[in-house]
Amino acid sequence: MKAVRIHAYGGPEQLRYEDIPAPVPGPGEAFVRHTAIGVNFADLHNREGRYPLPQLPHVLGGEAAGVVEAIGPGVTGLRVGDRVAYAAGGPKFAPGSYAEGRVFPAERLIRIPDEIDDVSAAALFTKGLTAQYLIKSVYKVGPGDTILLHAAAGGVGLFLAQWASHLGARVIGVVSSEEKAELARANGCRHVIMAGDPDIPGRVRALTGGEGVPVVYDSVGKDTFETSLDCLRPQGLMVSFGTASGRVPPFDIFALNGKGSLSVTSAAFAWFVRNREELILRANDVMDVVLKGAVNIRVNQTFALKDAADAHRALESRRTAGSTVLIP
Ligand SMILES: NC(=O)c1ccc[n+]([C@@H]2O[C@H](COP(=O)([O-])OP(=O)(O)OC[C@H]3O[C@@H](n4cnc5c(N)ncnc54)[C@H](OP(=O)(O)O)[C@@H]3O)[C@@H](O)[C@H]2O)c1
Fold first, then answer.
1. How large is the angle between the packed helices 155-166 and 118-133, nearest 10 degrees?
2. What residue's CA is closest to ligand 1, atom 22?
3. Omega before 57 cis (within 30°)?
4. Nearest CA to ligand 1 atom 20
5. What pLDDT is recorded for position 258?
6. Which end of the chain is less congested by CB atoms within 10 angstroms, N or C?
7. Ligand 1: which atom is nearest the Cα of residue 320?
């Protein structure tokens, strides 16, 4: 079976397309023959060693869609031939989706409805479930809210912008180019601010009657942290859920007092999708908004599996918009 592995942490040049033995499912597991593989920013962090892998060499990737080809002992509610997808699940589930197939715990597989094609399904669950828990659990977005969203034209960004807008919120998106601005506007952002703007807090205040926003969703990290705090209204919530530009350095918690009794949380998927019940509840919510057309899955880039390194180069140089998928 072909797979993309790294033998050492580093840049995209570490990705090697090579043969590995096809694994056999153990108790509670299924072997999924992949038809499409989702690329996520976390894969870059795994590659760099920022999110360490259990051992090296290791297959990268946390997400894919495909067909169940074999099931291990004790698996119920799943049959050979079922169309399924799975999302990255935090440190408990080691990466390994950049391959023609893989073994995965059956309880983490999601059945895909006929209306959702494989490429879309491979882009749906890590990003869709992330958007879901961020706007339904971390902060309950609703009508009357104005929210600020960084990387608004990215994979997670487009899900968040469309869904928050569907819930009645006014979305202000931050993006790095005119092309991305257009895409963000077409996908739920009422207002767009350029990432290079020297006064993002000023623009946000101008759009909110001087008040600021109740919540900022920030996946950029180091470069935007201070700016995000300055965009919040008193008692606002800063949701840090990614570190695309690097980790936020230590900061003085007392500064939150002076800026308006703000709150900060560092949110991670794994803590909001802790068991099958939660996975299915949230995944059904995601599929519901997709099937009723409120949220569209935007796969803007596809690459052959063997060219995964090119996908990484594109993602880390901010050349991608929407989701990126590899085809085995
Ligand atoms: N906590 C969680 O549960 C969770 C789950 C899934 C994803 N995430 C995080 O959410 C973020 C989005 O993930 P994604 O896979 O959908 O990626 P993505 O948003 O498609 O790509 C990252 C985007 O971040 C922006 N960016 C700003 N500074 C950057 C920099 N220095 N280098 C690279 N990009 C930069 C770019 O948009 P502009 O060009 O418009 O600035 C870029 O397109 C990532 O940080 C990821 O780790 C977190």
1. 60
2. 154
3. yes
4. 154
5. 96
6. N
7. 43
Residue of minimum CA distance from atom 33 in ligand 1: 316
The percent of residues in the chain predicted with pLDDT above 70, rounded, is 100
Nearest CA to ligand 1 atom 21: 154
Summarize the confidence of residues 237-254 as an average pLDDT. Answer: 97
CA of 254 to the centre of ligand 1 (A): 28
Across residues 121-128, what is the average pLDDT?
98
Distance CA 50, CA 142 (A): 35
Predicted TM-score (pTM) of the model is 0.98
Per-residue confidence at 89, pLDDT binned at 50, 70, 90? confident
Which long-range CB contacts under 8 A does 50-53 form with residues at least 24 apart? Answer: 50/243, 51/91, 53/6, 53/94, 53/95
Q: Is 273 in the pocket of ligand 1 (CB under 6 A)?
A: no
Q: Is 42 in the pocket of ligand 1 (CB under 6 A)?
A: yes
Q: What does DSSP assign to residue 45? A: H
Please report the pLDDT score of residue 243 as a whole number: 97
Q: What is the mean pLDDT of the segment spanning 136-155?
A: 98
Q: Which domains does the chain have, with CATH numbers?
A: 2-116+297-327 (3.90.180.10), 150-269 (3.40.50.720)
